[in-house]
Amino acid sequence: MTEQDSDITIAVIGLGYVGLPLAVAFARHHAVIGFDIDETRVVELSQGQDRTREVSSESLLSAERLRFVSQADELSGANHYIITVPTPVDDNNTPDLTPLIAASKTVGALMKAGDTVIYESTVYPGATEGVCAAELSAISGLQLGKDFYLAYSPERINPGDPINTLSSITKVVAGSDQTTADRVNRLYQKIISAGTYLAPSIRVAEAAKAIENTQRDINIAFMNELSMMFHEMDIDVLEVIETAATKWNFLKFTPGLVGGHCIGVDPYYLIHKSQEKGYFPQLITTARRINENMSAYVCERILKLMALKQKHVVNARILVMGLTFKENCPDLRNTRVIEIIQQMNRYHARTEVYDPWVSKEDVAGLDLNFTTEPVDGTYDLVVVAVPHRQFSTDNPRRYLKPGGILFDLKGLLPDEWVDERL
Question: What positions does the domain UDP-glucose/GDP-mannose dehydrogenase C-terminal occupy (predicted)?
Answer without folding.
Answer: 319-415
